[in-house]
Amino acid sequence: MSKQPKKLRLATVWLGGCSGCHMSFLDLDELLIELLEKVDIVYGPLVDTKQFPEDVDICLVEGAVTNVENLELAREIRTNSKIVISFGDCAVTGNVTSMRNRIPVKDLLTAVYHEAQAPIGAESLKILPALLKKALPLHQAIKVDVYLPGCPPAPNRIATAVTALLNNQPVDLQPEMRTFG
Ligand code: SF4
To answer: What region, left, alpha or beta, does residue 44 occupy, with left being phi > 0 and alpha being psi -120 to 50 degrees?
Structure first.
């Protein structure tokens, strides 16, 4: 009986983003079934793992690095992953998440938690991780191996990139797959 090839370990991470990139990942539809024959999803919103694991082969990171928890997790991802993909415009450029960068953090928190028409409430501030001065694209926090732009990246882009990596090939996106927005 032939031995099954070892499955790769895939992680997906949701930092400062809207989860739209993960929704696009789910839009791989039946391709997901083929993918799951080749990979184990070992971390991310789709599985219930609390701690980022060791020995991850491919990690898709959605969202910008916007608070101290994101930064800590990004460093953990880099230490434990062979290939890190900057997944979507927020990870690649900061995009929507970085729109707050022109506003000093203190003013931003005052506006949202104290002065808004429906303020969220100052109590919440005690449990929130501290915001970084600016929301950073992923590559400004850790080394990135592959950039996958799009808001969100269309499923065919995700499929192209992941398939190439599964086949041990470099990711070479066609120009129409390298657009933003
Ligand atoms: Fe959401 Fe777009 Fe950012 Fe993805 S790139 S997290 S879809 S805003």
So the answer is: left
pTM value > 0.70: yes
Of residues 80, 70, 55, 73, the one with CA closest to residue 16:
70
List the residue whose alpha carbon is closest to atom 3 of ligand 1. 90
- Max Cα separation, the chain? 68
Read off the pLDDT of residues 16-52 as tens digits, 9 standing for 90 and up. Answer: 999 999 999 999 999 999 999 999 999 999 998 999 9
Confirm if 61 and 21 have CB atoms less than 8 A apart: no
Beta strands in the chain, from DSSP E residues, in sequence order = 8-14, 39-43, 56-62, 65-67, 81-87, 131-136, 146-148
Contacts of 56 (CB under 8 A, 6+ apart): 9, 10, 11, 42, 43, 77, 80, 81, 82
- Residue 149 CA to ligand 1 center (angstroms) comes to 10
CA of 31 to the centre of ligand 1 (A): 21
| pLDDT tens by residue, 151-172 | 999 999 999 999 999 999 999 9
The per-residue pLDDT for range 46-86, each reduced to its tens digit, is 998 999 999 999 999 999 999 999 999 999 999 999 999 99
| Angle between helical axes of 155-166 and 30-38 (0-180°, round to 10) | 20
